[in-house]
Amino acid sequence: MTNAVDIENVSLVFGGEGNNPVLAVDTINIAIPKGQFVAIVGPSGCGKTTVLNMLSGLIPPTAGSVKRNGKEVDGPSRDVGYMLARSALSPWRTALKNIEMGLQIHGVDKATRRARAHELISLLHLDGFENSYPSQLSQGMRQRVAIARTLAIEPDLWLMDEPFGALDAQTRIKVQGEFINLWERSGESSVIFVTHDLEEAVLLADRVIVMTARPGRIKSDTLIDLPRPRVIDELRFDEKFKDAEHRIWKELRDEII
Questions:
Q1: What residue spans define the domains of the chain?
Q2: Would you place residue 18 in the very low, low, confident or very high pLDDT band (cuts 50, 70, 90)?
Q3: C-alpha distances out from residue 227 to 64, 107, 184, 221, Å
């Protein structure tokens, strides 16, 4: 079966001759089967977001090969949903119209995109806030709208860059639970989830990749042996969860310190 993602011997250098070139990512290899949830952790500046940018088609690698579904990435695609740390919602659009935006850009008719937006509003518990503007929503609600906007186009690959980093602890637990339930219902979609929060990585992912400090290399790649579906607010007290988090922390600790 063709993988969702194949990153083969990839390096990326920022800047050219005379511009103080920086080796951001150094000869990394990652293969991700379809339907797998992969979290990437590592110190700031190690190239985590750079990996997402190459997969999204926003930047090409300096060397090596980046493929989605067996085909070389040559630019952005509707098959990829990319969510950033901040919601970045359009302030002049209501929650409903923000969710519809990607579908509208892709030429989906109004009735179809409206139905899809309402479906996601229900799944993410935003009922009653369809006509609210971002300034009228809490940070947690804005992040839910951003999740819905990202997933409305039904991408095969979800790229998530610190999507819950700006949330307070209690809201974060709630939104994590809603997000993982939504993904577990999606079927074949694959996720690459960048986070600085190791607990979050182990709670959500099937597999956690640790990157070294710059230049970013793959230091470890660990499968997470926890059952699905996952109940996030209970799983953090499970001994298997604690053991997995501790093992990965041993790999991550030296890179951060």
A1: 80-154
A2: low
A3: 35, 39, 12, 19
